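Appendix B. Chain record.
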Amino acid sequence: MARAWLAGLLLLLGSLPLGASEIIGALSQNRVSLTANFSGSEILIFGAIRRSADEVLAEAEAEAAGLEDFDVVVVIEGPRQRTEVWRKDRVAGIWMNVDSVTLASVPSFYAVATSAPLTEILSPEEDEIYRISPRQAIRAEQAGDGSPEALLFAEALLRIRERTAHFMTLDRFVHVDEGILFRANVRLPPNLTEGAYTTRMYLMQGGQVVSQYRTAIFVRKDGLERWLYELAYEQPFLYGLLALVIALIAGWAASAVFRLIRQS
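Structure tokens predicted for this chain:
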């Protein structure tokens, strides 16, 4: 499947008019179904780099002069959500939530895969413009109340998301072959949020973004999970009644089992 896509990408790149270098990519799958036995999904991201005619002719001279070659950065960003971050403190000997900051828009998932360490191929100025690094995904400016401690809360949330593998920086996870083809495998965690996961691919050179390409992965509940989700939100009375009936049946079944055990 991936080889067929790569062949198609190369044909497409060859048909493009010569100009500045460009990046084009694709996904092994653009839909992920959340079912009862869903335990995560691995996405293959792959594509090709079309070099301009001048760059192809000057490639040998560039290598001799020690000029930097292209690098690739892939970003997968989950649906953004309003997120409240709490700070705990000891009050009368008990740990309690004492302060909070609400960030208006935080990705539920964020992964950055690169062909080289991100700090070596991306300048701070370009990161500020394109917002590529995980730190750019959680910004203190998103705190609507203008709290002076918003930066501390944003950094704490970033550490929490990194610890739970919902924010990842995957250095050297993108493999570039012959300076033309690239591929990367990124694993999505089991507890995904439903929605569109924007996938951005950047072609980098000398710390600057030369070209970019966007696509998306669509994640949605499927099967029984989808039916229960829609029932809960569209027919809450019926959902509550169904939950009550299931609880009564489970209680009666447990009682019957215990009676049989005592009689035996």
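Further analysis of this model is presented in Appendix C.
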